[in-house]
Design brief:
- The protein is 30% helix and 28% strand.
- By secondary structure, it is of the alpha/beta class.
- It has 2 domains: 6-140 and 303-328, 3-Layer(aba) Sandwich (Rossmann fold); 149-298, Dihydrodipicolinate Reductase, domain 2, CATH 3.30.360.
- The strands form 3 sheets. It has a 7-stranded parallel beta sheet with strand order 3-2-1-4-5-6-15, sandwiched between helices. Strands 8-11-12-7-13-14 form a 6-stranded mixed beta sheet. A two-stranded antiparallel ribbon has the order 9-10.
- Helix 1 packs across helix 10 (301-318), helix 3 (67-74) runs parallel beside helix 4 and helix 4 (87-99) runs parallel beside helix 5 (119-131).
- The chain is globular and about 50 Å long.
């Protein structure tokens, strides 16, 4: 291995973590030296076996409880972290990485702008990361790109902006089982609302984080932020690979986030994710000059998340220590070095 090779541990080998690992193996500048998991069926095996590669990689998968010892012993340059959504749940995992002096790139949605929901934990992480001279970043496709970095980047050619409106439309039937489950497909509307309120399902997390990330990038002070989600109800029988949906049951969600500036709506994010919807992403900027950007394909959530995380690893390794956001990173792009 050359001196430029970045030694990486994959923390969390669920669907997204495993996808990230398989794609990261294609990068010549990344060497995966191990994995961390809680699933007993994966712990103790070689990473190659866990990923179904048909060969061993010489990279061991250890249990979460042994993570600190493993990280301290192997001293990776970076940890790609993909376990849970909420910062209070993953905080101990991040602490282990930081104490082992490993930089962290995480898919945890609330880490994309953690000062909104977890200001105290964000401060602790920032202080600890600086003490141990490592960098921590939360990113992905959303938050991380569609709802924040991309619209902020598009304002680069504007001399004034009056409003930003982003729409992400997703055919939920094309997504993997965990996505469909957390969006409540096949539930009765009341069951959906109850489980959403109790945190048993989440649908999308990160409207507010993305709004505040945009605001920080373009330098605007917001009065307040609001967000919400409501179920989309099927008016006919529908079916996905995993769920049969009756009329009157949930077939998706309609979610939104709004940021207000000087008492007026300044940023609006809309997520329309339901069975049979057209896939597309659209950004409209009311400004000077006005702009409309549209991706007719839609941005594939899973592979785009893997790509963003992998492409950020070299940048995070080179970045100054502390808890950073996408505002602090070099303009995102493919990284082939």
């Amino acid at each position: 291995m050359t001196r430029e090779t970045i030694r990486v541990v994959i923390y969390g080998l669920g669907a997204i973590g495993s996808l990230i690992a398989r794609r990261a193996l294609r990068r010549k500048n990344l060497e995966i030296i191990g994995g961390i998991e809680i699933n007993p069926e994966k712990v103790g095996k070689d990473l190659g076996e866990v990923l179904g590669l048909g060969e061993k990689l010489g990279a061991k998968v250890v249990h979460d409880k042994d993570a600190l010892d493993f990280l301290m012993e192997n001293r990776p340059d970076a940890v790609i972290h993909s376990t849970l959504t909420f910062l209070d749940k993953i905080y101990p995992q991040l602490v282990r990485c930081i104490k082992a002096r490993a930089n962290v790139v995480s898919t945890a949605e609330t880490l994309a702008y953690p000062w909104y929901r977890y200001p105290e934990l964000a401060t602790l992480i920032d202080e600890m990361a600086k003490k141990y001279e490592v960098t921590v970043l939360g990113t992905g496709v959303n938050p991380g790109f569609i709802f924040d970095s991309l619209p902020a980047f598009l304002t680069s050619v504007c001399v004034d902006v009056k409003k930003i409106h982003v729409i992400r439309s997703i055919d939920a039937a094309k997504r993997r089982f965990p996505f469909q489950k957390k969006y409540g497909l096949g539930m009765d509307p009341e069951e959906f609302r109850e489980k959403l309120s109790r945190g048993e399902i989440t649908a999308h997390v990160g409207y507010a984080e993305s709004i505040l990330l945009i605001a920080s990038m373009i330098g605007v002070e917001l009065d307040r932020v609001e967000e919400g989600q409501e179920p989309v109800i099927a008016d006919k029988a529908m079916e996905t690979q995993y769920f049969k949906i009756k009329p009157g049951q949930v077939c998706g969600i309609r979610g939104y986030g709004i940021g207000y500036h000087n008492g007026e709506e300044f940023i609006r994010l809309e997520l329309l994710a339901a069975v049979g919807r057209e896939d597309y992403d659209e950004i409209v900027i009311e400004g000077e000059p006005p702009m409309k950007w549209r991706n007719e394909y839609g941005t594939s959530g899973d592979i785009a998340t893997a790509a963003m995380v992998i492409n950020m690893v070299p940048r995070v390794v080179r970045a100054p220590p502390g808890l950073l956001t996408m505002k602090d990173m070099q303009i995102p792009s493919l990284s082939l070095k």
